[in-house]
Amino acid sequence: MPISVLLVDDQPLLRTGFRLILESEPEISVVGEASDGHEAVASTKRLLPDVVLMDIRMPGKDGIDATREILHWSHDTGREIRVLVLTTFDLDEYVVEALRAGASGFLLKDVPPDELVGAIRVVSDGAAIVAPTITRRLLDRFADKLPSTREQPTPRLDHLTEREREVLRLLARGLSNAEIARRLVVSETTVKTHVGNVLTKLDLRDRVQAVVHAYETGIIRPGEGED
Questions:
Q1: In this structure, are 100 and 212 located in the same domain?
Q2: Which of 130, 157, 176 is the last residue of a domain?
Q3: Sheet containing 51-55: which strands, arranged edge to edge?
Q4: Other Cβ atoms within 10 Å of 190 Cβ, number
Q5: Average pLDDT, the chain
Q6: Which SUPFAM superfamilies does the record associate with it (predicted)?
Q7: Domain interval for residue 183
Q8: Which end of the chain is less enclosed by CB atoms within 10 A, N or C?
Q9: How would residue 1 be classed by pLDDT, with cut points 50, 70 and 90?
């Protein structure tokens, strides 16, 4: 079965461009389009796409609220729907909010066609497309500017072991499993186990959400380097 995709953007020309790119791929099917968040939510529930390509800045309900609503509904109904955020990167600070809401990553609006297709394939398989190093840079830049993070209570991390907290800290700094293994002098298999435990215990979808969670809980702070 082809990967079904819903295109969400308030600019018709962009939707047309993405559609032309994706429809040239036999394993991808564009099942619909939406011009704002309200349409995105309604279309997702009706069409049940595998992947939603979501713009951030739209009139009415924006991409952040739409992402949050779609993924809550997806979770409640047991459906596997993934969201990829579209951003201009230099302007869309609130892409971090979309990652927090459960988006599987973000794409630049001028993404090359092959990268767009590749990202949709990866996300449809249940993985995140944003490298933790890129997510960390984004959070370093914008985390302190997000008002919604300042008044949130800090989630408890007591159910993580000290080693799992250490793995989360290194993961949030952008290290790969192999790099974490070398740092901790353990096998890569052991690191994979720790990462899996962290995601399970904190009820996180993937490594991208783990990076966001690490910033929210103070495990790592903006500007903290990889040392």
A1: no
A2: 130
A3: 28-34, 3-8, 51-55, 82-87, 106-108
A4: 15
A5: 85
A6: C-terminal effector domain of the bipartite response regulators (SSF46894), CheY-like (SSF52172)
A7: 143-216
A8: C
A9: confident
